[in-house]
Model the fold of this input.
Amino acid sequence: MISDAGETMTNVQPKRLNAYSYLIEKEGTMNVPVKIFASEKLLQKMMEDRSIQQGVNVAAMPGIRGWSIMMPDAHQGYGFSVGGVAAIDAKDGCISPGGIGFDINCGVRLLATNLEKAEVLAKIKPLLDTLFKEVPPGVGGKSYFKLSHAELEDVLLNGAHWCVAQGYGTQDDLDCCEENGKMPGADPSKVTQKAKERGKGQLGTLGSGNHFLEVQYVGKIFDKKAASVFGITHEGQVVVLIHCGSRGLGHQTCSDYLRKLEDAYPEIIASLPEKDLVYAPANSQLAKEYIGAMCAAANFAWANRHMIGHQTRKAFKAVFGEKTALKTVYDVAHNIAKLEEHTADHEKFMAWVHRKGATRAFGPGRKEIPEAYRAIGQPIFIPGSMGTSSYVLVGTEKSMLESFGSTAHGAGRMMSRTEATRRWRGEQIKNELEKEQIYIKAASWKGISEEAPLAYKDVDEVVRVSDEAGIGKLVAQLKPIGVVKG
Amino acid sequence: MRQPYEFLDHTSEAKFRAYGKTLEEAFANAALATFALMTDISKVKAKKEKKIVLQGKGKEMLLFDFLEHLIFLMDTEGFLLSSVKTITITKKKVEYELRATVLGDLADGYETHSIVKAVTYNDMLIEEKNEGVMIQVVHDL
Done:
């Protein structure tokens, strides 16, 4: 094992604003300052790799407004850090595939059940076996829903609406989903054949890595009113959290457009500190094409999580009977760019808000929020790592002012997979978690050790900072009892 | 003898270096490293044969496309690589051309622990020296 020379400490020293945020003043090529939401502990972690420098690099993107923002869970990515937000002027800025990520519309869906912790724990093993069968990891296109060319085109254009039209799930699922499960502006013709080939056998599959389906119970409710509006009614209630994205179709779309941009804009590449920051200038032909493809890939992801939700219902009914109800609480994207109206420098403007590993956190009143939730703000889900808590938060007015309506998206890795597999064996982790009544069904032991809970930052700390900073207020803590991992 | 590839620490993704006496050998070892991230390649049987022909403007692009093609085969058909049977890289007028025959099996019945989502150019290196070739790649996991 040799050390990674690429992960050097940053020499930038952010200025402390208060207990939960830091600022790097604008200088040199930066167009805006960098704002970091972090406690001292989380900032120290960020200082150990290139994430802060990446935040500084993003501040130099053309058309960026306000700040280059880093969330409490930020860590090193390519070009943009993971956990970064950039509001880039739609009129004269740009769009950057690297500011969205390879897994376009990776996100989280939460379903609330009418079951209690004790009754689910009593059948947890058969439940996990059934879930693992109904929601496969999907290696090599092993989906239950193989799509024809025409069907895939329909999914890319209509997202989760296609699923409901085919009889999977209900209108309620669409009502409680970001963008109602269908991104406007999708153009399937801009998704390459190669990406489509990868996607057509992957609908309703989980993938692998940090993607999982978790059976959880409500551990603690912090905000009774918001929780009950979201359908989270009491402690002990069982919920299901699904974390995955657009699978190979989205990954290929990002790769394809990075290549197209590389070919079209060698002069932009030459001017950048990292190649992965490459962008298409606003209103360029490639910007239009990428946006069409990105929205189509986002639709694939919503259809994917919708189908996984459908399969989850099927599995629960098979184990607990037909009366089992699973209501979609909401579905959030955390790797995406959205056209939104915001304010910076006392001026309203339309921005492509790039959220790469960040969750939209719109406060009360925004028209984008489902009617049922509009009075209180949108639900936000922050999944922990395997075996740790996940959280439900609610969007705030302050997030609109401080972070372009965004907050954190997860725990964020702090240890490499290679180091994690050196330290722990999968069997050992499984046994230890079982002692705490957390059961795992995974495709492999190694996959379990790579995702060891201690390889991640402390999600409790990430959520605490988000809450204190006011960019997402705590609603409920969810605790795992069963994990399905690809 | 030097190991064919080794994994480096990377907080969130997968980074490796692959070595070879020639560019071809280093490319082949980079392909094996890619699949070693996903499964125990020593267990994969050489049941299926795939032929790959690719052109690229530079060596980095050729490497990117070669690894991406293998990921494509894995995603669409479930093809897991066991070995690279033959590989040649030739410089044409403006482009490089890669021709390879690879062996492997379908994923059914094998344990996979990760799926590589995408190849990246992040920190990609191809260093050719008298003593041999070193390739460095970061995959998005």
The first strand of chain B starts at residue 5 and ends at 8. Chain B touches chain A at residues 6-12, 14-15, 17, 68, 71-72, 74-79, 106-108, 111-115, 117-123, 138, 140-141 (CB under 8 Å).
